[in-house]
Amino acid sequence: MAISSQIPLISVELREYLESILGFEKTKKYLSAISTPMEEYTLHIFQKHELADNIIERILECEYKAYQHPDFLNLIITQPKGPFEIESQENLKEIIVDNRAAEMVYQGSDIFVPGVKRANKVKENDIVYVKNQKGIVVAKAEALMSHNTILTKNKGLAAKNLESYYKVPSVSQLGLDDYPIYFHSFPAYLTSLNLNPQQGEKILDCCAAPGNKTIHLSELSKGTGNIIAVDRSKTRLDHLIKKISKFKIKNITAVVGDIIELSKQWTVKFDKILLDPPCTALGLRPRLVLETTKRTIETTAKYQKAILFACSQLLKPGGELVYSTCTITKEENEDVIYQASDVELEIIDQNYKVLKTVSTDLESHPYLQRFIPGRDKTLGYFIAKLKKPQS
Questions:
Q1: CATH 3.40.50.150 fits 185-387, yes or no
Q2: CATH architecture label of 93-164
């Protein structure tokens, strides 16, 4: 007998909020889609587009679908496998992992020590259920460590995933670690294209980590733009620094700091700014637990508006800014952008749009772009482009 799970677990408050902005039917489709991986994943080939056929061949050998994007030849589209069933088995012990780790395990990842919250009485080689902190079964696995060993270590592989609902390909799993590629969601790819960085421009990516869009900006500017990548988290910024090293990029400078504070200190002005601020991430997939409160949404939006103001002070007259989030709330998206005129920025059209995802769902501006799980084969995402008038 297969195990079935009621997912995602969603608070009444959030469900009512989503229905108020999307309507009942779109909310139903969103909730069905958000608990699954994206229907399509895009691999971005950095510069060496001639490797596309070789990369596709490797992916097909691993029994995943793969083909070149019809419009952007440096993108390879692949798809996850699943859904699969997890067979019920009596008297299995349990490994409990944090909710973020659970979402990775749910789509095929192994279980690593930092994500483990409990593993009572688990011994090496035990077959166990892996559950999140809400008790949702996300996989069946073989323990590679005893409970006592897990408690004494802060890294390493705690258990091998045997059965999960989905399998989403990774660069390592595909045997492509030595290739100049990385997974890059299609909306995020469009975000960098819409900023349209030019050779020699001064460009700011002000919430940069983990840096996929930053790397893309370097590629688009042909390695000549002067790109400053800022993030508050040194740990997250280290991921970007590793990519800079791997791809041998020379025109990105990584800076640890809060862009609001830095804007008060800097005198430099930028030609282009990419702003992808911290958000409630209600567009990320898969999500198994959704408990975001209206208060959190409002607090996050207030912080985003503060960052937008800081960026407006750093933008040259005539300069352009692209704002994006991986969430679907009105407060963090349309409401932030509609206040752009307060900081002397005007909404302008985007050169790269998927027309069916223009943000008309929320009576929005035709220049804005919105992606919604359940309607689009991507994560939930929002893109706007703004310009500072010439003084």
A1: yes
A2: Roll (2.30)
Give residue 225's pLDDT: 81
Determine the angle formed by the axes of helices 12-22 and 24-34, rounding to 10 degrees.
120
Task: Supply φ then ψ for residue 302, to 5 degrees.
Answer: -65, -40
Confidence of residue 138 (pLDDT cuts 50, 70, 90): very high
Contact (Cβ atoms closer than 8 angstroms) between residue 319 and residue 272: yes
The answer to whether 93-164 and 185-387 have equal CATH topology is no
Model pLDDT, residue 356 = 54
Greatest extent of the chain over all pairs of C-alpha atoms, in Å: 72
Residue 113's Cβ-side half-sphere holds a number of Cα atoms within 13 Å equal to 14
For the chain, what are the domain ranges?
9-78, 93-164, 185-387
Q: Kindly give, in sequence order, each residue whose CB lies less than 8 Å from that of residue 257, ignoring residues fewer than 6 positions away.
A: 230, 231, 232
Helix (H) or strand (E) holding 220: helix 212-220
Tokens of 180: 């100049």
62 included as an active-site residue: no
Query: 142 exposed, middle or buried (CB, 10 Å; 0-12, 13-18, 19+)?
Result: middle
What is the CB neighbour count within 10 angstroms for residue 253?
Answer: 10
Per-residue confidence (pLDDT) for residue 197, from 0 to 100: 95
Choose the catalytic residue: 206, 207, 279, 326. Answer: 326
